[in-house]
Amino acid sequence: MYRPILETSIVPQPVKSDRRHKRPPNPPARKPKAPPRRQAGPRTHWENVAEWYDTLVGAEGSEYHQKVVLPGVLRLLNPQPGQAVLDVACGQGVLCRRLYERGARV
Question: Which stretches within 1-106 are classed as H helix?
C-alpha cells in the first residue's frame, strides 16, 4: 500500500557573506634549518682521479668527446665568427679550443 510521505518545506537559509575575499593569516615565520653537519666518511672530491682524467681527456678530448660530445655541442651552438661564448667549469678547455677554431670569441 502506498503511503504519501509528509512533505515539509525545508528552505535553505541564505549564507551570510560580506563578499570580500579574506586572506588567510600568514603562517608564522619559520627559522631556516641549519645544513646538516658533515659526517666523517669518504671524501667526494676528484683529487684521487684528477691526474688519470687529465691524461684521458688531454688537450683534444677523449674519444667520447671527439665523436659524440663535441660534434653534438657544435651542431647545437652553431658558433659564428665573432660570437662571444662563455665556457664555465668545463674541464680542460677542449670545447673552448674548438669554438675558437670556428672564430668565436671564447
Answer: 47-57, 63-64, 70-77, 94-101
Note the pLDDT tens digit of each residue in 19-77: 666 666 776 777 777 767 766 767 777 788 888 888 888 888 999 999 999 999 999 99
CA-to-CA dists, residue 8 to 16, 24, 29, 43, 68, angstroms = 24, 39, 52, 78, 80
100 closest CA partner among 66, 87, 76? 87
Three state DSSP letters for 77-96 = HCCCCCCECCCCCCCCCHHH
